[in-house]
Structure formats: structure tokens, C-alpha cells
Design brief:
CATH class of the largest domain: Alpha Beta
Shape: globular
Low-confidence stretches: 351-373
Number of strands: 20
Largest sheet: 6 strands, mixed
CATH topology of the largest domain: Rossmann fold
Structural class: alpha+beta
Mean pLDDT: 84
Strand content: 25-35%
Order of helices and strands: EHHEHEHEEEHHEHEEEEEEHEEEEEEEHH
Radius of gyration: 24 Å
Length: 373
């Protein structure tokens, strides 16, 4: 224990051990970076509790023999835990209840942009994340980070980058093929193939072993299905939190209304309180995407639609039939504290699911009580 009491300390092991300012020159990963950070924590004036380091499963491949031996020793003691994606577990342990580290601080220089929709506590935090700086005398100075407030466009772009990475679509040439071309799965027992026989509704996964794309559901090779239609996404917020996403294809029109019926996208099961949904007209507005541009038209809604700058300085109430472009610098404000914004994420990965449904966390790991060093 660093101290007898205080918040748990969760160390982003991969982020620390691969940080160039902490690593010995020439090393891709340095276990000594972890020990330097621990030393800085012990010398800090803060009252802190136990330490648990979370590492990506591939981190140990970058250690030399000596570093790996120390790493395994601490892993056996339970001080280090390996997991496929460390960030998921770090954030869940710190911000979920009943994990044994709830309310803990995270040692990392990551911005955790893709977790901010699900965990709004990250936005503007000044006391939950610890960073470091190496001084001219090679000492490690730790400080509480100001996490700032990221725009939804920035968060969306970060999420999209994470989706590309998860599908192993890393190189520009591979990404270009995945974005421009459409694919279909011909596996008769695959759910995606049965529901979308003509074209996958989301990006495939890439297999570099044979330079092929595979179905994200069943893993079988997919077939070429022509060119992919350009897409865009509109985010639906209520009470400042993302509730869902609307995926628009070029040439498509969607009616945004209160009833959950064909063509309408707001209704039961959408995580919008009934008191707010009642203020939206049955057919409130129309969203269209033509030649890559998303436009919005008020359909004579009872309680109106306003378009305003993201800074809130300019505001205009739309009249029936008004059709205006929905661009990144503006947002639509509807009754019931419902807001629509254009996403920075353009490519279809998981359809119109909100960000918080695309961030996977191992439920078993969250429910488990962890032991802290």
C-alpha cells in the first residue's frame, strides 16, 4: 500500500511503459518506467490507496528478458493484470460501483475520448487522472490532469479510429477499400447474412494473412458487392447524454418523430423519457442526405425546431418547410431537452448504436472485487 487510506491507484501499464519520456532510449517498452512512476507516487504529498496495473495482453512481447521476469513476478502477486484491452477495464474499475476500486484515480496520459459518452465524469475532470512529466534532472513529477471537455465530433472521430483498429483496418490502402467498397456474407447460418443478404450493414474485418475481408459476425470471407454508398451519422442527445445514432445513406430520407413506426426514429425503448418524447410531434422533422450533405426540414411541428451555433450565440427557429444544412458547427434543439448533432463519425460500424453501446466491458471483471497492492 502507498498509504493506509485514499483512492485506489489504477495504472495504465501500456501507456506508462511505452511512453518515450520514461523509456530507456532504444527500448519499445521499459518496465523501469513503471517503477519510476511508482516512486513518484510514493514521493507525492497525496494520500493514495492500493495499486493495480492493467496491461494490454500484447505488452509483454515488447519487454526484454529481464523486464519480462519482473513483470511476471508482479503479475503473480496480482499487482499487474493482463486483459485484451486495458482501457475498458481501467475505466470500468474506476467509475463502476462495486469493483473494489470505485472512485480510484487513473495514471495515464490517454485522453479516453471514446469513453466520455458513457462516462461523462471524465469530461472536465481535474482529480481523477494523474499524468507525469520528466524533469531536467530525470525525476518523474506527477500531477493531476485537467481532462478538458471534448466536442462530440472529436469523440466520434476517436471512436471511429478505435473501430478501424478493432477490425484490424490499419493501413490507408486497406481502409480505402473498406470504406469505398461494399461486401456481403454468403454464410447461410450467419445472422448478418440472413438479415442483410445483399450487403453487410457495417465494416468487415481485415485478415492480413491472405489480404482478405471477413464477416464481423461469423468470420468467413466476404464477397465483393459493389460500391459502398456514402454515409453520415446524426447523434440524438437527451439531458446532455447521447441516446442513439441515426445512420443516413446518401439519397436517404428519414422522418424524426414521436412514434416508433416505419420511417420514425423516436419511440418506446429509445431511452428518452415519456415526458420529453410527448413534446415531439408525430412527424417532427425530416433528415435527408443528398450528395454528402445532410439537411433538415421542419414538418410543421407543434412545439418547433431551433437551429443554433454550437456556442449558442446564433439561434433561429425553423418554419414549416424550411430546409437547412446540418453541419458540424451547428445543432438542432428540440423540446424536451432533445438535441441533434452531426457526428464526426461517418462510416458504418455498428449501425446506429450509441457510443456507449460500442464500448465493450467484461461484465464479469466489473462484478469481481479486486485486490489492491
Amino acid at each position: 500500500m502507498l498509504f493506509e487510506d485514499g483512492p485506489a491507484v489504477l495504472v495504465d501499464m501500456s501507456n506508462v511503459c511505452r511512453d518515450r519520456s520514461l523509456c530507456t532510449e532504444g527500448k519499445k517498452a521499459d518496465f523501469r518506467a513503471f517503477t519510476r512512476v511508482l516512486s513518484g507516487l510514493k514521493q507525492s504529498p497525496w494520500k493514495l490507496g492500493g495499486v493495480l496495473a492493467i496491461a494490454d495482453r500484447n505488452l509483454h512481447h515488447f519487454f526484454n528478458r529481464e523486464d519480462l521476469a519482473q513483470y511476471r513476478k508482479l503479475e503473480e502477486k496480482g499487482i499487474i493484470r493482463e486483459t485484451p484491452i486495458a482501457d475498458d477495464l481501467l475505466i470500468a474499475y474506476a467509475f463502476e460501483e462495486g469493483t473494489g476500486a470505485s472512485g480510484g484515480v487513473i495514471v495515464s496520459m490517454d485522453g479516453f475520448a471514446d469513453f466520455r459518452p458513457q462516462y461523462p465524469e471524465i469530461q472536465g475532470s481535474t482529480d481523477r487522472f494523474i499524468g507525469w512529466k520528466v524533469t531536467s534532472s530525470a525525476q518523474v513529477r506527477l500531477f493531476y490532469r485537467d481532462m478538458g471537455v471534448f466536442t462530440h465530433q472529436k469523440i466520434s472521430r476517436k471512436v471511429e479510429e478505435g473501430e478501424f483498429k478493432a477490425r484490424k483496418i490499419l493501413h490507408t490502402s486497406v481502409r480505402d477499400r473498406a470504406v469505398r467498397l461494399a461486401y456481403r456474407c454468403a454464410n447461410p447460418v450467419c445472422d448478418l447474412a440472413r438479415n442483410w443478404p445483399d450487403m453487410l450493414p457495417e465494416m468487415p474485418e481485415y485478415d492480413r494473412r491472405d489480404d482478405s475481408f471477413r464477416c464481423p459476425e461469423c468470420g468467413q470471407r466476404v464477397e465483393y458487392a459493389g460500391s459502398r454508398t456514402p454515409t453520415s451519422q446524426v447523434i440524438v442527445f437527451h439531458d446532455g447524454r447521447e441516446r442513439r445514432r441515426i445512420l443516413l445513406e446518401d439519397g436517404q430520407t428519414i422522418v424524426f418523430g414521436r412514434k416508433d413506426r416505419k420511417g420514425a426514429v423516436l419511440g418506446p425503448g429509445r431511452d428518452i423519457p415519456e415526458s420529453a418524447a410527448k413534446q415531439i410531434s408525430r412527424e417532427h422533422l425530416r433528415l435527408s442526405m443528398i450528395d454528402g450533405m445532410v439537411t433538415v426540414e421542419d414538418l410543421g411541428s407543434k412545439n418547433g425546431t431551433a437551429i443554433e451555433s454550437r456556442r449558442g450565440s446564433d439561434r433561429r427557429v425553423l418554419r414549416k418547410g424550411d430546409e437547412v444544412p446540418l453541419v458540424s458547427r451547428v445543432r438542432l434543439r428540440l423540446p424536451g431537452d432533445i438535441v441533434l448533432e452531426l457526428s464526426g463519425r461517418r462510416n458504418p460500424f455498428a449501425g446506429d448504436n450509441p457510443n456507449d453501446l460500442t464500448v465493450s466491458t467484461d461484465p464479469g471483471a466489473i462484478d469481481e472485487t479486486i485486490a489492491l497492492y
